[in-house]
Amino acid sequence: MTIMNSRERLLTAMRLGQPDRVPFFDAIDKSIQMQVMGKKDFTCVDLAQKLGMDAIGFDFFPPLFCVRKEIDGIDHVVDGLIKKAEDLHLMKLPDPDNKELYSEAESFIDKYGKSGYAIYARIRLGASPTLLSMGLDGFSYALYDNPDLVHEILDKYSNWSKRVIENLNEIGIDFYWSCDDLAYKTGPMFSPQVFRDVFLPYMKRAADAIKLPWIFHSDGNLMPLIEDLLSLKMSCLHPIEPGAMDIEQVKKTYGNKICLMGNIDLHYTLTQGTPDEVDEEVKLRINQAGTGGGYILSSANSIPNYVKVENLLAMAEAVKKYGKYPLDIDQ
Which of 142, 214, 285, 321 is the most exposed place for a label (fewest CB within 10 A)? Predict the structure, then answer.
């Protein structure tokens, strides 16, 4: 098989093709990046080369209107600030048509656009910022007491995201990575009917503006929502959380419709396991989801500051060991 560069490899998988090997990339906490590199001064390309990752990118998230608290070195949203109509004055979004808003993104493209790596922009479609800016309790009460408030916030976020996406379409990125958490490990944060009636129309407004391949991210068990989610026409689903979703079943049922990404257990294998256990899990996941292509390997969330560096390195090495097509999983 012809050797591909990282961009070709990743985009082939996202289009349900079979690349030369299973692609790999992840979102990695800065402190872990520095441990991997052994220094503070390095570029995203340096890190990608070190780990054999196939994509680099930047965040283009809308602001959240919330209370934050740092716990064990991790920034957490602990409550939303938009509880009632009188709070809407707090919700000030930057002008999505201000050219200065895109200056850093354009500089990133200018610097790395010919690097051979696939370049992504991480975005949101509007669901997650609404939930975080209201708080789940605030959202739930408002859904009953003042549904117009929920719709107004979703409307503001989805319109902003739509216009941002329309502008980002033109600057030279390769794909989007949309992050809108909708579920717990046990199931969705709300009923499928609420998702269908309240969230989906606004998310679709933003998603319809996407003119490139894109990944949809949500932790948890998405199975009760998956048919509605697929109407957004994403190219890839991430992270297929272990214990919440069965990647073999998802591959069997939806693998001809959508690329799958993730499923390497964050909370046990990468955090508490050994490099040998990581190696075995990567081998198993490639066997379960990699056949025929349409699979990108990553953690089942991201790489936070408590992951063992040796396990991240083991994951990166195992992709090289087991991910070459045609697959030879018994090696």
Answer: 321
102-134 pLDDT per residue, tens: 999 999 999 999 999 999 999 999 999 999 999
H/E element, 136: helix 136-145
Quick one: 258 and 232 in the same domain? no
185 and 331, same domain (yes or no): no
Residue of 180, 179, 167, 181 whose CA lies nearest to 211: 167
pLDDT tens per residue, range 239-252 = 999 999 999 999 99
User: Using 50, 70 and 90 to split pLDDT, how confident is the model at 329?
Assistant: low
Which CATH number fits the domain that encloses residue 176?
3.20.20.210
Angstrom distance (rounded) from CA 275 to CA 287 = 18
Walk across the sheet containing 214-217 and list its strands: 55-59, 118-123, 175-179, 214-217, 236-238, 259-261, 295-296
- Do 311 and 270 contact (CB within 8 A), yes or no? yes
The distance from CA 54 to its chain's CA centroid, rounded to whole angstroms, is 15
Q: What are phi and psi of 203, to 5 degrees?
A: -60, -40
Q: Structural domain tally of the chain?
A: 2
Nearest Cα neighbor of 157 from 83, 225, 96 is: 96
Are the CB atoms for 10 and 54 separated by under 8 Å? Answer: yes
One domain, residues 104 and 210: yes
The pairing of strands 118-123 and 214-217 is unpaired
- The CA-atom distances, in angstroms, between 273 and each of 35, 200, 224, 229 are 18, 38, 31, 33
